[in-house]
Amino acid sequence: MNAFQYRRGELHCEGVPLRRLAEEFGTPLYVYSQGHIAGQYGDLHKALRSLDHLICFAVKANSNLAVLRALAEAGTGFDIVSGGELYRVAQAGGDPRKCVFSGVGKTRDEIEYALKLGIYMFNVESEPELRRISEVARCMGRRAPIAIRVNPGVDPDTHHYISTGKHESKFGISLREALDVYRQAARLDGIKIRGVQMHIGSQITKTAPFVLAIRKLLRLIEQVRGIAPRTLQSFDMGGGLGIRYRDERPPTAVEFARAVMPHLKAMGLRILLEPGRFIVGNGGVLVTRVVHIKRTPVKRFVIVDAAMNDLIRPSLYGSYHEIIPVTAKAARRKITADVVGPVCESGDFLAQERRLAAVGENALLAVMSAGAYGMVMASNYNARPRPAEVMVKGSRYELVRRRESVKDLVSGETIPSWLM
Ligand SMILES: *Cc1c(COP(=O)(O)O)cnc(C)c1O
Q1: What's the CA-to-centroid distance between 322 and ligand 1, angstroms?
Q2: pLDDT in tens, the chain (420 residues)
């Protein structure tokens, strides 16, 4: 489903013109398509239907309650990386029993909270963490279900900031050491071995790295089965499925399933996936308004009201986001310009040396593919209130997070008594 399309020259999200949303809720504004988000999940779920599986949406990609609710309703589980994300899932009506808890630095409090809610399993990233989880569980008279995150040593050929499966990464336990850690786990009173997990990186646009990584883990999985024959239930292959930002040709859900399924079926385990970007990335846009056009002797800048604090991916990773006019007819002529925000940093840009429609002051632009790692990474840098978020379903739409006010910016701060 392509949820964002021009109709009569106006860019729509499903049945709703983005111009109407910008006028009603202001800019910058995140707009999400429920149809796209549920559709992406549905495609993957259907492609894997001949396999016992659970798709756990990676909450870190987009943690808005409405998004989580839409996915929970569709039947997903969740991959969380903090107690805060687990709280969000619970608030959205998600099922903790379908949650896996990833991340390298889980605290005592977070472990306790997750055990209390009864999550499916902890994905353990180190021996000290394994011992800590065991200790917390024992204090509660419980056994914590775990998987070890195993680092298969595969280069997924993506941006080095989002590649996690290579040997030098901070994530996971190397394949060489993993069996030993599983043996230790089997001896701990507070631990129950439930799975084997991997996650090799993000925005992976080929199937080969997944297949290679799975094949490298097959022997280990059999060895773990030997250690924990009664409790081993699942293999979690992580997230990382790429999407199209520009001209990438990532595998479709069906192509992905066709490549990995032969290797997974033989395992006889329940297969977990942790996609984030694949589910929401192209289900959201950031709508922004042109403040003015600035020309210097050598360059042209389109200065917009969205900035790196609203969408940091271009500044942080050099990511490409397509930028198109909300009203198509406004802009047949093309210019080359940098699209920049008002933040006082040279790194504050949404696009550089970009060919784009020759828009003027007050024109609305849509920054595409902003549904994943957009709003979740927004900050208040430069004392800028964070954007509002809207969810669209067909011809219906609703504000799902109000725009922050300047009052929100200072709430929680106090001036010490000696300065009063
Ligand atoms: C970030 C992350 C994901 C999701 O990655 P996507 O590229 O958004 O699919 C899944 N699992 C783990 C452990 C992660 O750190």
Answers
A1: 23
A2: 689 999 999 999 999 999 999 999 999 999 999 999 999 999 999 999 999 999 999 999 999 999 999 999 999 999 999 999 999 999 999 999 999 999 999 999 999 999 999 999 999 999 999 999 999 999 999 999 999 999 999 877 665 555 666 666 778 899 999 999 999 999 999 999 999 999 999 999 999 999 999 999 999 999 999 999 999 999 999 999 999 999 999 999 999 999 999 999 999 999 999 999 999 999 999 999 999 999 999 999 999 999 999 999 999 999 999 999 999 875 678 999 999 999 999 999 999 999 999 999 999 999 999 999 999 999 999 999 999 999 999 999 999 999 999 999 999 999 999 998
Ligand 1: distance of its center to the CA of 388 in Å? 25
Catalytic residues: 344
Enumerate the CATH 3.20.20.10 domain ranges in the chain, comma separated: 103-273
102 C-beta closer than 6 A to ligand 1: yes
> Does residue 357 line the site of ligand 1, with CB under 6 A?
no
Which two three-digit tokens encode residue 30?
């995140």
Query: Does 145 contact ligand 1 (Cβ within 6 A)?
Result: no
DSSP string, 175-219: HHHHHHHHHHHHH-TTEEEEEEE---BSSB--SHHHHHHHHHHHH
Gap from CA of 224 to ligand 1 centroid (Å): 24
Cβ(79) to ligand 1 under 6 A?
Answer: yes
Answer yes or no: are the C-beta atoms of 237 and 217 closer than 8 Å.
no
**Locus of tokens 């790194």:** 347
Rounded Cα–Cα distance for residues 110 and 132 (Å): 11
Q: Which fold has domain 103-273?
A: TIM Barrel (3.20.20)
- Rg of the Cα atoms in the chain: 23
Q: How far apart are alpha carbons 306 and 407 in whole angstroms?
A: 20
Start-end of CATH 2.40.37.10 domains in the chain: 4-32+281-409
Q: Which uninterrupted H or E stretch holds 322? A: none
Q: Which atom of ligand 1 is nearest to the CA of 201?
A: 7
For ligand 1, whether the C-beta of 149 sits within 6 Å is no
Q: Which of 37, 57, 71, 102 to mutate to test the pocket of ligand 1 (most atoms within 8 A of CB)?
A: 102
Q: Which CATH superfamily is 4-32+281-409 part of?
A: Lyase, Ornithine Decarboxylase; Chain A, domain 1 (2.40.37.10)
Does the pTM surpass 0.70? The reply is yes
243 lines ligand 1 (CB under 6 A): no
